[in-house]
Amino acid sequence: RSAMAEIDYDACVLAAELAARAAGDEIKTAWDAERDVEYKGTVDLVTATDKKCEDLIFDMLQSKFPTHAFVGEESVAAADGKLPEIGDEPTWFVDPLDGTTNFVHAFPFSCVSIGLTVKKKPVVGVVFNPISNECFSAVVGKGAKLNGKPIFVSKVSDLGKALIGTEIGVSRDAATVDAIMGRVRACVENARSLRCSGSCAMNMVGVAMGRLDGFYEIGFGGPWDCVGAAVIVTEAGGVVCDPGGKPFELTARRVLCGNPDIAPALTKVLTAIPDGPLEPQAP
Predict the structure, then answer these.
(1) Mean pLDDT of residues grouped by 10 in the chain (283 residues)?
(2) Which of 6, 87, 281, 283 could form a disulfide with 249 if both were Cys (CB 3.0 to 4.6 A apart)?
(3) In the prediction, which pLDDT does 212 show?
(4) How far is CA 80 from CA 40, 75, 142, 245, 276, in A?
């Protein structure tokens, strides 16, 4: 029997849901706390909540799966942004608070994002928005769920009728902004409309449940934003790939997803726009 066969994915998803909900309680408490009008104070609140939630999730998952590896947004930031080597062993990717700008502004679109990879392939995913109380989950081969009920990607087949999500990102150099706006323009010209809601993971699960027909982002924070959601999208019948059309790459900081009709159509439209020289390049 392979190591993969010995991992109880159902136990993994259950543990991840419990951890996500525990972190969600912390986010909700901080959310309801009075926000400091000075931006610095709010940033401190974000940092404190981020750190507290990541520690909480790590503690809960490590106690159940002591042999697994762990990669968290906060722990990587503490290591000067250097991503550890990702191996074949079971590896958890955690973003304790995806959508920090939303959190700062009380825009109700932040979430806890947890994903597990085995042999570098995403196999378990949980994305929990504590403000809307939406818990998305999936185990490879077993379908995707929202609050325990099965979810599926949309049936929109024409890009001209599709609602597409993306993000404007944080880079503000002229070449990157030009590339971002070039892609935005391509979507505006070819799709029904565009949404930038401020959370990579929430956008991806939005595709999984048919709220969005497609989503792409180039240059998000790291694998913790998309590993869990990638399982949820594929298990809901969707496609996850690189925006250039190649296979999805864990650490590339580039992703595109959609239903089986919209994903290739969106890829075709986006590949006509050259990436900015400072953006993460296609694998």
Answers:
(1) 72 98 96 67 78 97 98 92 95 96 92 98 98 98 98 98 95 94 98 98 98 98 97 98 97 98 98 96 93
(2) 283
(3) 98
(4) 21, 9, 37, 31, 24
pLDDT recorded at residue 1: 40
Residue 102's identity, in one-letter code, is: N
Residues 6+ apart with CB under 8 A from 22: 56, 57, 60
CA distance 158 to 230: 23
Burial of 171 (C-beta count, 10 Å sphere; 0-12/13-18/19+):
middle
Distance CA 127, CA 111 (A): 6
Distance CA 162, CA 22 (A): 35
Query: Which H or E run includes 146?
Result: strand 144-146
- Per-residue confidence (pLDDT) for residue 5, from 0 to 100: 53
Q: How far apart are the first and last CA of the chain?
A: 32
222, 244 Cβ separation under 8 angstroms: no
Q: Is the dihedral of CA 149, 154, 100, 256 positive or negative?
A: positive
Closest among 69, 130, 132, 121 to 235, alpha carbons compared? 121
Listed in sequence order, the residues at least 6 apart from 85 whose beta carbon sits closer than 8 Å to its beta carbon are: none
Give the three-state DSSP class for 58.
Answer: helix
